[in-house]
Amino acid sequence: MQDDAVIVIPVFNDWECLALLLNDIDTTFGQHGLTCRITVVDDGSTTKAVACFRTRPYKNISCVQLVHLRRNVG
Description:
This protein is an alpha/beta fold. 28% of the residues lie in helices and 32% in strands. It is built from 2 helices and 3 strands; from the N terminus they run βαβαβ. It has helices at 15-31, 52-55; strands at residues 5-11, 36-43, 61-69. The radius of gyration is 12 Å and the shape is elongated.
């Protein structure tokens, strides 16, 4: 199955808000009968990423990929 969209989200230390955003995206895409893939770009965060957002069973997000940057590039 091919996804309808790919979303790239930059994050710097705000993992709790990311989890909320992913839940909102999952709900919104479901309301429209769509699916997506998410690529999260960790922009050199100084706090560890919370793994729970990657293992949550989303209904309309097929996968969440995390890319780590060594330093913040703004």
